[in-house]
Amino acid sequence: MSVESVFDRLEPLLPRVSKPVQYVGGELNATVKEWDATSVRWALMYPDAYEVGLPNQGVMILYEILNELADVLAERTYAVWPDLEELMRENGIPQFTVDGHRPVGAFDVLGVSFATELGYTNLLSALDLAGIPLHAVDRTEQNPVVLAGGHAAFNPEPIADFIDAAVLGDGEESVLEITDAIRRWKDEGRPGGRDELLLRLAESGGVYVPKFYDVSYAEDGTIAEVVPNHERVPYRVFKRTTMELDEWPYPKQPLVPLAESVHERMSVEIFRGCTRGCRFCQAGMITRPVRERSPQGIGEMVQKGLEATGFEEVGLLSLSSADHSEIADVTKGLADRYEGSNTSLSLPSTRVDAFNVDLANELSRNGRRSGLTFAPEGGSERIRRVINKMVSEEDLIRTVSAAFANGWRQVKLYFMCGLPTEEDEDVLQIAEMAKEVIRAGRQVSGRKDIRCTISIGGFVPKPHTPFQWASQCDPDTVDERLRKLRQAVNSDRSLGRNIGMRYHDGKPSLVEGLLSRGDRRLGKVIERVWREGGRFDGWNEYFSYERWTTCAADELAALGIDVAWYTTRERTEHEILPWDHLDSGLDKEWLWADWQDALEAREQDDCRWTPCFDCGVCPTMGTDIEVGPSGRVLLPISPVGQGSPIQNPAL
């Protein structure tokens, strides 16, 4: 396949599509290398629109790590909107990278980072546009290795037909090892062809290659067994964990988008993992153990990132950023350093019980005081015990009262609907909580312009969590509970007019649930949906519930199963789950015991500060939870001086 740029053919089409700037590349800190000067070439894809994909930290980190190697080339590609897809098909233009506008089919690896299962159909569009056979079994040495990663790849079985391999967990070290394996295989003259390369990846135990595992099914539709079909392939594949985050200070040169993106800021991941034990949260479970970046490491990354980008906001990222054991020192040190500059700080995720006004004041010291966001997740205390989100209403009111008394005017609260054991009353309590927030805010501030927004998403049971056995709530029940909630919010107009309500109906959540706990039999459903026009299923304007349910009914009927079998059916203790051979480090018996605790509404403490609960991660990883004090202070500690590119971006 030609490696020449397709831009000369693409450019005349761009005036005919929406947001053409997202396809032109050339962002600040982007990298374009000479093709012939490199031996291994990666195309990195985020299977969604540019505006969502470009800020993705995972892709940005791997892009930089790979391009630091002299003989390795990495370029980026994103899903193209349907208007451009149609024109590309009419004009014979293949899926391209935005860096060199090279055909994706010419690369050695197409690495796809899935944050959500609703991106699966976009993968098929990219493969088809690239001229890569949809089915892995039909590919040859001339086609890229299609490699899946990201949180939604912890159960890659629904897309097993379409991918060659998957990596579970952190990618920093694994992409380098995969690169080494490809380099050696190519240097040796490609011995054994494509299968030998895939075997070399699979026998490491850190790369899952579906073709080397056979799945059989019992008469009741459940999985009978999953077994390797090659002697060089292990029975279980283990997740990868990057332990010393300070040794991986990426991205050092963050990309700056040309088009509008969902996050207009420079971000630093301050720690990885979570031990709070929220039973619904796949991210918190699969990223264990906690690994903290030191204050010194954070400070250096912030300084270099701001100088490299010109951004005026720094996001301190993690699953719950205020849980960093040295967060007070970090925020004060950064606030001191950038006081008087245009630089502001933000914590995108904050727990009620980790928040305090001193922390918030440090973050807003430069005068930018936006609303505060918290996630109680459940409306009643009972349901919060079920999901292990132990935040009392008293804690929430105390926290928001302190914030309102110190000048804040807006609070956003996140909840879920359709949680295990949930009843109408659990959801209606959300309205009462929001009203209490308004009352408390008015009382402590003496003002009437206090606002509270409640945002509600549908619960989706996820693999590798205690809720992986749970029955998913049907969309009609979710929608009815949300209707009753809106009525409850509006029942008191004097308070309700200050409460905003945002929610998604239950239908997209059911499809996400179908895919999240699916097996290989869903490959036919995904392909059928795609062939009938399925694209951008994470976007309301493109998602079609009817298309998904109709295609699923048609494809699954002959197998004696249906959508309900995958979604609203509760699993039994000893059922073989599609991902049981993929080891996230969590002990399945521990997950089951925690599921039983959930059904009894028994909470579990945070193991970071209490004795081990034997979830299995630390022994499996041969490590332990990492927390401060690190003994290292935030550097540099001197204020930003005149002449700094942070103080004077034009310099």
TrEMBL record:
Recorded superkingdom: Bacteria
Domain annotation Radical SAM core: ranges: 260-498
One GO MF term attached to the UniProt entry: catalytic activity
InterPro entries for the chain: CHP03960_rSAM, Elp3/MiaA/NifB-like_rSAM, Radical_SAM_N2, rSAM, rSAM_horseshoe, rSAM_sf
SMART domains in UniProt: Elp3
Name of the protein in question: Radical SAM family uncharacterized protein
